[in-house]
Every structure is written in structure tokens, then in C-alpha cells.
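Q: Here's a chain of 78 amino acids. Please give me its 3D structure as C-alpha cells.
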Amino acid sequence: MQLPPQPTPRETTEAMVRNIGLELAEVQQAMVRCRGDAVAEPRLAGTWMAHLLISSNELLINLLIDTARRPQRISGPG
């Protein structure tokens, strides 16, 4: 019998921002090393833009979850 997949824990917003910063720093270093290369530079620029788009989408979702109002429990009469 197969068990249903367990949800993966959500990365905190702070950890997500830190990881995005580290990943983009790596891409920037690679961009410096390949500056002027007619093939590598545009590919890395495209990778950088794609990473920013994907990361910003995931970060926005995380921020929306973090700032969402939690439902209030309504107590019965008495």
C-alpha cells in the first residue's frame, strides 16, 4: 500500500531571502568571469533573469502566507 506524499516544510521568508542572495552572488561572480564571451554571457544573463523571476514569485507567495490574517475562532453563546 502506498502512503500519500507528506507536505514538505515551508522555507522561512528570512531563509529564502538569504538563499536567493547567495545564489545571485554566485551568478554575478560567473558573469564577471565570462564578461565579453559572446555565448556564455547571454546564457548566464538569461539564467539570472529566470532565477529572479522564479525566486520572486516564490518569495511573494511566502510573504502572502506570512502576512495573511488567520481565521478567528467564534465562540458560542454564553
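Q: Can you summarize the key feature?
A: The first helix runs from residue 13 to 33.
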